[in-house]
């Protein structure tokens, strides 16, 4: 049987399981007490709004299908982590770190630290995009502030705070920008002159491993770590680089994602073996087969030219039916495609989507 057909059947089963579970969640408690989110624009829900950066989307048509309108989410409605939050059974979305600082919202259910254009490396995005919150800052600075606040809120009962933090899920979705906003733009960064693609990826994996271990040292025990999607198949990538050898996508970018994922998977197994009482799983956001030709055919839902050229133009009129499009803007998926990714991460039974287990099983461990 064709591999795409097999995967399509698995996806259909996954969606059915998700729908069945949703019916029983009306009054249920979430599967984990708290959910902490680290990453880039696929997960960002407003942390970039007050930054001096090209990577912010606090304006229409972003949020066109979201009840609160433009919030800083890089899509027309809910983003990847919003759907994950729903699937895990939370009644409310996880607040952004910037919102928590301003409003003092309840942090016991978790915090979203993700930042558009952020990378594993601190320099990623700095010289071509502007301000952003790198993964190191998300973990070492911002998350530690929240841990301190949680501990204070629990009457400085450190054992109780650690017990709570042990039960949370820590989602890490990052890495694309280290290629598209660093390695492959030599005008701003010299990494492609200093490293081969494989050596650069080794650097990313080592740095990511170090950052994960900081979370572990701060009581994190359940980790969901995302691989990279085919970053050479975005409308923006195709526009910037052109297609390769008859392929509808940019092969060098996709090859970078493949190398990253191939090196990330062994890291997950290594961490599972070496870090006591910790559970790690690798989630593949590109687990759903998308015909690259459809990307070229359908284009983006909104008219692009904002940000560094890949974002929606401020106040522009989007397409009438985002469901017919894979991409909302030049880089980010529509809400419907975000939901497909989330369903795969949560309930897929194939190692193509989740390895060694899906997000639901991670929550149950």
Automatic annotation (TrEMBL):
Pfam families registered for this protein in UniProt: Lipase_GDSL
Record's keyword annotation contains ATP-binding: no
Keyword 4Fe-4S attributed: no
Record family assignment: Belongs to the 'GDSL' lipolytic enzyme family.
Gene Ontology terms, MF aspect: hydrolase activity, acting on ester bonds
Endpoints of the signal sequence: 1-28
Domain of life the protein comes from: Eukaryota
Location(s), subcellular: Secreted
Chief place of localization: secreted
Protein name: GDSL-like Lipase/Acylhydrolase superfamily protein, putative isoform 2
GO annotations of cellular component type: extracellular region
Keywords: Hydrolase, Lipid degradation, Lipid metabolism, Secreted, Signal
A GO biological-process term: lipid catabolic process
């Amino acid at each position: 049987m064709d591999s795409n057909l097999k995967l399509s059947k698995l996806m259909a089963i996954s969606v059915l399981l998700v729908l069945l579970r949703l019916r029983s969640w009306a009054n249920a408690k979430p599967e984990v007490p708290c959910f902490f989110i680290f990453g880039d624009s696929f997960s960002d829900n407003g942390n970039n709004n007050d930054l001096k950066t090209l990577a912010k989307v606090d304006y229409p048509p972003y949020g066109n299908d979201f009840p609160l309108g433009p919030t800083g989410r890089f899509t027309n409605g809910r983003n990847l982590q919003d759907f994950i939050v729903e699937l895990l059974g939370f009644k409310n979305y996880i607040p952004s770190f910037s919102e928590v600082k301003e409003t003092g919202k309840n942090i016991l259910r978790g915090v979203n630290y993700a930042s558009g254009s952020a990378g594993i490396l601190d320099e990623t995005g700095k010289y071509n995009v502007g301000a952003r919150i790198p993964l190191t800052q998300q973990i070492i600075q911002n998350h530690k502030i929240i841990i301190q606040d949680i501990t204070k809120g629990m009457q400085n009962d450190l054992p109780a705070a650690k017990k709570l933090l042990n039960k949370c899920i820590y989602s890490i979705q990052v890495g694309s920008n280290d290629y598209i906003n660093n390695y492959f733009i030599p005008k701003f960064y010299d990494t492609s002159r200093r490293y081969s693609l494989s050596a650069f990826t080794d650097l990313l994996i080592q740095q990511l491993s170090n950052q994960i271990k900081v979370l572990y040292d701060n009581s994190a025990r359940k980790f969901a770590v995302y691989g990279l999607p085919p970053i050479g198949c975005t409308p923006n990538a195709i526009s910037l680089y052109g297609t390769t050898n008859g392929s509808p996508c940019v092969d060098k970018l996709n090859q970078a994602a493949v190398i990253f994922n191939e090196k990330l998977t062994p890291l997950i197994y290594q961490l599972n073996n070496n870090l006591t009482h910790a559970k790690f799983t690798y989630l593949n956001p590109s687990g759903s087969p998308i015909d690259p030709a459809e990307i070229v055919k359908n284009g983006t839902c909104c008219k692009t030219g904002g940000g560094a050229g890949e974002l929606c133009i401020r106040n522009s009129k989007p397409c009438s039916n985002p469901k017919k499009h894979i991409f909302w803007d030049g880089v980010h998926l529509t809400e419907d495609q975000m939901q497909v990714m989330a369903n795969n991460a949560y309930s897929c039974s194939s190692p193509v989507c989740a390895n060694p287990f899906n997000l639901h099983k991670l929550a149950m461990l």
